[in-house]
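Weekly structure sync, notes
Attendees: PL (lead), two postdocs, one rotation student
Agenda item 3: pending single-chain targets
PL asked that the sequence for the first pending target be pasted directly into the notes so everyone works from the same version. It is reproduced below exactly as submitted, 239 residues in total.
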Amino acid sequence: MAEKHSVSVVVPFYNERENVPLMAARLKPVFDAMGGACECLLVNDGSQDGTRDAIEAVAAVDPRFRAVHHLRNFGQSAALISGMRRAKGDYILTLDGDLQNDPEDLPELVKLLTDFDCVCGYRAKRNDTWVRRVSSRVANAVRKTILKDGLRDTGCGTKGFRKECVDLLVCFNGAHRFFAAVLISAGMRITECPVRHHPRTHGVSKYGIGNRLGRGLFDLVGVAWLQRRLVYPAVEGES
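Predicted structure, written out during the meeting:
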């Protein structure tokens, strides 16, 4: 019988009060179906709309859900890494808090993590505005040309990592779009997986042309430099 690995799911939220209980409701049957030790870290990134109370309410009735609260808004990348560093699972999965990612895709990521260190979901059919689709398409094309990571959709929030990947990630604003590029530089095995994508029904998107396309292209300069300068020293007697 195959070894059953423990699983942690990290979900960042910023002013997503309505989506917190809905996310929990969608994750519970997925956890039940997967079996084994499952947990979800609900990361409140300094929300001001009642998201904190919504997370606490979910955590109070189901011990599989854990609350993490930032003192102020630090951004999506910081929220993801905060949750990942506190996760207990062998496998760490991520979802966006806007419910556009589908928790039912998570078991497939878990299956792929038996052979790979990181699994990057890609949205096979985008359900977004034309502005977000076009800006993502341009940013992805430029990123692949510069970083040569070979990935088609690094903006997708559905991702999976083996726990040992977490210590290799560098935390900066916007880092979540480049997790895979950093891990590739560290010699980790990466694969992709098609995932579902749903239209947003509650809350407001925090991204637009200015902070998605423009900042993403600017970040490429820094990541390209970092990719060439990162060092992961191997120590004799350790693997």
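Discussion points:
- The two ends are 26 Å apart (CA to CA).
- The longest helix spans residues 209-229.
Action: rotation student to compare against the earlier draft before next sync.
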